[in-house]
Each structure stands twice: as C-alpha cells, then as structure tokens.
Amino acid sequence: MPLVTIGIPTFNRRGTLIRALESALAQDYKNVEIIISDNCSTDGTKDACEQWQKKHARIKYHRNEVNLGPNENFKKCLEMSNGDFFMWLADDDFIDNNYISECLGLLLRNNDVVVAGGVAKFIADGSVIGKGRRFNILSSSSVFRVIFYLWGVYDNTIFYGLYRKSVTDKNLMRNCLGADWFYLAGISVNGKFMTSGNTHIYRSIGGASASNCAMVRTQNLHVANLWFPGTMIGITALSEVLVSNHNYRNIFFIKRVALAIILFLMFLLRTGFYGGALRLRYKLMTTVLGAERYERMKRRFKKHVYSKIS
C-alpha cells in the first residue's frame, strides 16, 4: 500500500482546521501521513495541533517562524511530504472518508492519469448549498490538455485532488494571480486528470480566493493585477510556457510558441476586458450604494448562484 501524504496549510483557522484534520484521519485508506504547516497562527492553532500530534502518530506539525504568505505555505507542505502520492487539503475544507481510496484507485488503474479528485460540494454556514461538476481532461495531446484545462477550469477543485508525487514540484508554484491554474496546467503536460463521482470534497465559500481584490491583497501583488487581471494572467501564461515551467520543454518549440500565444489571447478575451468591466462596475456600485451594502448584495447573489449549480 503506497504512502499518501495529505498536506494542510493553515493560518488562524483553528475551528475549521480541526474539521479538516478529522476528515483526514477518518480515511478508510490507512497508509496516510498528515502534514500541517502553520503559517505563524495567533489563534491557538499551535496548541491544538500539538495536542492532536501527541494523540496520532500520523500527524506531523510544523510551524513557520514568520508568516511566509499562502503560496510559500502550500510549498512547505509539499516539501515536507514523504508519500508516493500527495494532496493538499485547505484548512476550511474537508473530505469524504473514501476520498483517498477512490482517487488512489483511479491513479493505480490508469497509468496515464496524474491527478485524480472528487466532486465538490459547496458549503456555507454549515450547509451544502451547491454541487460542482466532474472535470476530466483526457486528451492524448499535451497541448490540447493545457488548453482544455485552462479554458474549462472554474472553481479548480481538481487542485485539491491526489497527485502522483513524481509530477509535483514546489518550485513551479508562482506568486501570481491564477497560481493554482498554472500549476495544474504545467502538470497536465505530463498526463490526464480524472474526477470520481463516488467521493466528494466539501469546499467553504469565501476565504482569500473569494475575490480578485482578496487575492491581490493576500499575495501582495502589484495593483495592475487588480485593474487588468486578464492581461496579467495572460502575461504569466506567456512566461510559464516559454520560460519558467520546465514541463513545457518537452513540447516542440514551434508548438510551445503557438500555445503561449493562444493562452495569452484566451485570457485577454476571457478575463481581461471582462475583469476591467467588473472593476468599473464595482466603482460605480460602491459609489451609489456604499461598499458595505454592495458586498451584502454580492453575498446574497453568490449564494443564489451556487445553489443552482448541479
């Protein structure tokens, strides 16, 4: 039975972290190590984790001396892992007790699959308010897999799937908008993605990834990412494909150039102009309604939208 590592990066979420930890410990697949990387929490997370570590030998707790930021904390989990397979679990999410066994089964039965996950169920105020979709990337072409993934990705639940450790690389996670998108896009060059409909990951609505503003602020990104998100993501795509991500080097150079141009234009058209329009709308609406009232309206609308997902 291969060793599986569940990495839980955390910061000041003691309550929901315990829920995530309990779901990791309750897996019906038992050869699991659980690594908690604490980004210098101040809410009692340290004491709680140390108590859990004493009770369960499978738990390894690490506390950063300073807050490294979210991306570096995710990297720390991967860096400390020993498993043949690896997954991240957000500290405000949790998983069914068959999540590892289902995902591992897909990987062991399909040698060309490199990441396997479950279907998302979205939760708010302790209740399930919507369900995600199965997201499979099964093309035999590495170029098409990248395009299909980046065009079809929505909530990116597959990021919290189970990976073959051999395709992971902590150095490929950039501090940029869409960092999780580009990480998975690079990995898709190496193989296919599959989602099982027989297991679920329960994802909390909100958090640092709830809005573009929150992501820019949390990751301390340049303000250009707020005003021109699609353009900045497109520039990152050019850099990833042509320079930064070694996974693309196995693609013939002319195809790489074509892929980079396609991705840049895709993000420019899909989110560039759209993102600018959203920012303009935000300015107008907050001027008319006030920021607090507008945010309340957005939360009600988002809850309604998620309730319609099937």
Overview features:
310 residues; globular; disordered C terminus; 9-stranded mixed β-sheet; Spore Coat Polysaccharide Biosynthesis Protein SpsA, Chain A; 11 helices; alpha/beta; 2 domains
Poorly predicted regions are 305-310
Q: Kindly state the percentage of residues in helix.
A: 40-55%
Radius of gyration: 19 Å
DSSP strand tally: 9
Query: Do you know the CATH architecture of the largest domain?
Result: Alpha-Beta Complex
The backbone outline, from C-alpha atoms, is globular
User: Which structural class matches the secondary elements?
Assistant: alpha/beta
H/E series: EHEHEHEEHEEHEHEHHHHH
Note the total helix count. Answer: 11
Give the number of domains: 2
Largest pleated sheet: 9 strands, mixed
CATH topology assignment of the largest domain: Spore Coat Polysaccharide Biosynthesis Protein SpsA, Chain A
Question: On the 0-100 scale, what is the average pLDDT?
Answer: 87
Q: In CATH's first tier, which class of the largest domain applies?
A: Alpha Beta
CA(first)-CA(last) distance: 35 Å
CATH superfamily of the largest domain: Spore Coat Polysaccharide Biosynthesis Protein SpsA, Chain A
Q: Strand content of the residues, in percent?
A: 15-25%
